[in-house]
Each structure stands twice: as structure tokens, then as C-alpha cells.
Amino acid sequence: MWRNYLKEHQIQVEACLQTLVPAQAGPLSRIMESMRYSLFAGGKRLRPILLLAAADAVGAVGSRFLQSACALEMIHTYSLIHDDLPAMDDDDYRRGRLTNHKVFGDGMAILAGDGLLTLAFETLLSQTEVAPEILARVAREVAQAAGPAGMVGGQAIDLESEGQLPSPDVMKLMHRLKTGALFRASLRAGAMLGGGSEEDLRSLTDYAEHFGLAFQITDDILDVTGTEEALGKPIGSDEKNQKATYVSVYSLTEARRMAQAAVSDAVAALERFGDRAWVLRSLAEYLLTRDS
Amino acid sequence: MWRNYLKEHQIQVEACLQTLVPAQAGPLSRIMESMRYSLFAGGKRLRPILLLAAADAVGAVGSRFLQSACALEMIHTYSLIHDDLPAMDDDDYRRGRLTNHKVFGDGMAILAGDGLLTLAFETLLSQTEVAPEILARVAREVAQAAGPAGMVGGQAIDLESEGQLPSPDVMKLMHRLKTGALFRASLRAGAMLGGGSEEDLRSLTDYAEHFGLAFQITDDILDVTGTEEALGKPIGSDEKNQKATYVSVYSLTEARRMAQAAVSDAVAALERFGDRAWVLRSLAEYLLTRDS
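Above: the input entities. Below: the C-alpha cells describing the complete assembly.
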């Protein structure tokens, strides 16, 4: 039944994104097309779902905050476009389709990323039905998570350490910044928008840390054990790019054990929310069985 | 005496930027170094000065809003870093120094731009002494100006039209988005932060439109008549890159006449502010004599 929740809310996010980033004629048609190409490429909308489910968990109706949820997806999409560039990971395929720069060229891909990042903040700050002090706090939280002390910083560490295996500590920091920070902001934003208490916020932050870790470990496992069909991209790319992963630093068996422990810890952090956190609970457990 | 104002406030902006973007040891040292390299490259701090002077004009003490002013400089700097990339204008020099990607590599330059853009929003939204509804409004205004309907859109039009001269209308739209939008946001943000009335806001918006136009025309003129020493970059790059400019679309004489008219219009828009707008008045007039 949580798959129904997922599908239903994915459709809502999709529809909202369509109104926020519409196709356009005229001189701006190409940049909008480039942004839309990557935004509507069949993503799982995980960050939006986390935000909505966190608002549910603190007792609000999550779908009131679809616009914030979409802003997070814009930031995630921008990061993928820039990550795929030849100057970064140099990937030709993503989700079974050519990457943005292979279709629109490197220059337009850089601008599409820049555009999505900026539009995300405009979107976050344009919700007239949310109190301005909440808006400002949520947008600040997201900016922090996406910036040099968060996602951009993690990507910079990743870029610096290619070809030279970093220490396990630096690898963990890199992942916490590169993917963990935006998960954390998604969950905390949902709690803030939904009017959660500081105690709610602490529990969801705790959940976020463990969720992010489990996500990263299972991501590294999939790069070894997954199939190209399910992933929509070549497997074994981490090894090819000499990246430090939980599988290469530890082992496949140990990585699986660590993922299971992280999921248990994530679920434990949800205790105070009872049934209202059922989606977040299912999402964490799903990480152990995902194939993409 | 306005040069004293300029120098004094440039020093304040410089000091504030130093605290907002400090050098850092550890795994994030390189990305911070890359951001700082371009941020402290001797820019004129024109957008921060416009914000501070606009707050002065509506009767506030501009220097209370240094943090917002610095955020605008971060956004301007990010746009220069990305514009200089090989995938865009492919420039090796800026302000007499190697461009960011020539020193740090394309990947780190992209990230430095991403980092500055994101940090700008964090900075805007972290001013505890400003009311949250003003903060949210100012940040939304800046996001709009920097995004696909503003600066990013202008850059996209520029990228699309290289090698094929666009119509005068498309060229004007491109400049209004690429450079005009952020000037406009700087002035409007200053007015909002300073507690200006809607009438104040309208007059400063009017000033901004004319100021932006005069800036762009004189920029195009300098690319033909300027010296490499004063500009810190090769002259004639617009012609080399087959860019549509006010000089190529009209003529040098006509462009000079248009710049003069735009400055007169800008100054006229300041009438209601009287002496309090003396810096904005001097800034507009300076455009006609600038050599860089």
C-alpha cells in the first residue's frame, strides 16, 4: 500500500513540476527545454516524497507543501546535470537516456543546472500560504544543505579524490555532504512546514542521517550487483573511476551488514511518530530491496 | 567625494565577504580557495554599492544591509566564473588574472560557481536583524532576477546566438536579462530592505532600467575603444566572437548618443529622492567616463 502512496504522490509532484517549469516558445525555449529534459526523465522523486512524508509524520497534510517538494527535486536534478558533465563524472547515460550535455551541449547543460538551482529558491520563497518566517527558515536550511558546506562541498571532495582512494573518514564525509545533506534538508523542511516541534525535528534529523547512510551504501552495492537494465546506466562505473565506495573500502558482505544496521536505526528514530510515520518506515526498508 | 563613498563602501563589502567566505583547512579547502580566488579578484563591487546606495536613497542607513550586498556580489561572481568556461565564452583572462578554470580546472570552477550561487541565498536568508517577510521578499526578487527568466536566460540567449547576429530586439532582451536583471534586483532589494514605499520602488526600478542599459552600451563601447591595460582582458573580443553589441548593431556614434540618453533618464528617475540619491546620480554619470 505504500507503493500506492508513492505512485499517487509522484503523480502530484509531476503535475506540480509541469506548472512550475512549463514549456515555452520564443528566445527562452531552448533553456527551458534543457531544464525540462532532465526534470522529466523518470526520477523517483525521492526527496519530494521524503518532504511530504515528514510533514505527514508531524501531523500535517504533506501535499499542502508540494511546491517545496518540487523545489528539492529541482536542486537534485541540477546536481545530476552538473555531475554528469565531462569536467566532472563524464557520463553519457542517466536513467537509460543520453545525459543533458550530450543532447544540449556542455554550455546549455551548465545553464540548465544553474537555472534549476535558482528557480528552486524562487519556488521555495513563492508559497504565499506559508508564513514568511517558516519560508525563510526552510529556504536557508535548503541553501545550507546544497552549498559548499553541503552538496557542492561533497562533490568537490569527490572531484579532488578521483584516482586516489580517500580514507574511510573522508569518504564518509563526502557522502554525508554529497547526498546526505539534501535528504536531511528534505526531511527537516517537511517537519518545519508541517509545524513539527523541535523534538520532532531532532527525531527526523536522526532518521535522515541513517536513511542517507543506508541510501549511499545500497547505491554502492547496486553499482556492483545491479543490472544495467534496471539502473539505466552502466554498472561498475565506480571501479572504473577508481572511486572509494562502501564496497571497495569494506567488502560486499560488510557493506550489506552496514546497510541493514542503518535501516534499523532509521526505523528506530521514528518511534515517537507511531503510525503517522508509516511511509518513512517503508521507504527506509525499501532501500534494502531496491534494484535502481 | 562620491569616490570616497565608493572606496569606503568597497572596503566594507570586502571585509564582510572575508567573514562570509573564509579560507578553510581540511577537505573543503580547495573549493573554498576556488570561490575566494574569483571573489577577491578586484571587482568594483558595483551591485553591492547599488544596493547600499538605494537603501540610503529611501532614507535608511545602507551599511546595515552589507550582508545582502555581499550576496549580490557572490551571484555576480558565480556568473562570471561560469561565463568564462570553455563551454561558454572560453576566456583565459579576467581583470588581468587567469580565469578560475585556468587555475582550478573546469570541474572545480563549475562547483565554485554553484557554491557561490547557493551561498548567496544562505547569506540573504541569514540576516537575523531583518524581518522575515522582507527577507523572503528580497530573496525571491533576487532568485527571479538570477534565474531562467533573468540572468541565466540572458546567458542562454547569448550562447544560442553566437555566430549568428540576433535581431536588435533579441539583443536588447538578452542584455536586459543577462546584466540588467541583477542591477534591477540590487536596487529593488536596497529599497525593500531600507523600508522604501511602493512609489520609491517604482522610481528605483525606473532608474535601474536606464542604468542597466547605459552600463551595457558603455560596456560594448569599451570593448572597441578601451585599452587592454585598463580592462584587464583583451579588447575586440565581441567582434572575435561575432557577438551582437550596441556598437555592431548601431554605430559607435549612435551608441554613445544612446548611452548619454540612458544616463539622463536614469538621473531623472531619481528626482523624488533629492540629495539622498547623490551616490546613485554619480554612479550613473560615471558610466559615461569609465575606462573599465
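Note for the figure: The longest helix of chain A spans residues 198-225.
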